[in-house]
Design brief:
The chain has five helices and eight strands. It is of the alpha+beta class and 163 residues long. The protein has one domain: Roll (Pnp Oxidase, Chain A). Strands 1, 2, 3, 4, 5, 6, 7 and 8 form an eight-stranded antiparallel sheet that branches. The longest helix has 15 residues.
Length: 163
């Protein structure tokens, strides 16, 4: 498949997928801790992704003073690594806006817990893979690739500049 999608279309598909599925792995680059599963709250207009955390977690400690982070996201159709600057932000308005039953289950002391804070990822760039084929076409491409000693044609990859 040729790279038929524009950068705007790829970015739109990425944001749609993150808004719909929300769950990915977040980590600070260069930090010794593993990436962690996090629920993402996207703000398209500012290319920001927000996450809940406690201010005393390993992740929050690694972010103190700002850091570079990556959010790894994957669905059947979209796979991406979104990079950017991350920082702790005490923002009660966003805590209130994004609070829901799913979040509440992870923070049993409630949204007024003084340890509760937000992480803001200011997205700078992303590598995005779009898979354009369903399972039958995917199986066909795998079989054809193996028979012809080439790689399968299942979609495209684009780098996005999110500044």
């Amino acid at each position: 498949m040729a790279n038929d999608l524009t950068e705007a279309e790829v970015q739109d598909r990425l944001w749609n997928a993150i808004e719909k599925h929300q769950i990915g792995m977040l980590g600070v680059l260069g930090d010794s801790h593993h990436f962690q599963p996090m629920t993402a709250f996207l703000e398209r207009e500012g290319n920001e992704i927000w996450f809940f955390t406690y201010n005393d977690t390993d992740l929050a400690q690694a972010v103190q003073g700002g850091a570079t982070a990556a959010f790894i996201f994957q669905t059947r159709e979209v796979q991406a690594c979104v990079d950017g600057r991350i920082e702790l932000v005490q923002d009660q308005a966003r805590i209130d806006r994004y609070w829901n039953a799913h979040v509440a289950a992870w923070y049993p002391e409630g949204k007024d817990d003084p340890r509760l804070t937000m992480l803001r990822l200011d997205c700078t760039d992303a590598a995005v893979w779009i898979t354009e084929v369903g399972p039958v076409r995917y199986a066909w491409e795998i079989a054809r690739a193996n028979a012809n000693k080439r790689t399968p044609d299942v979609g495209e990859r684009q780098d996005l500049n999110l500044h």
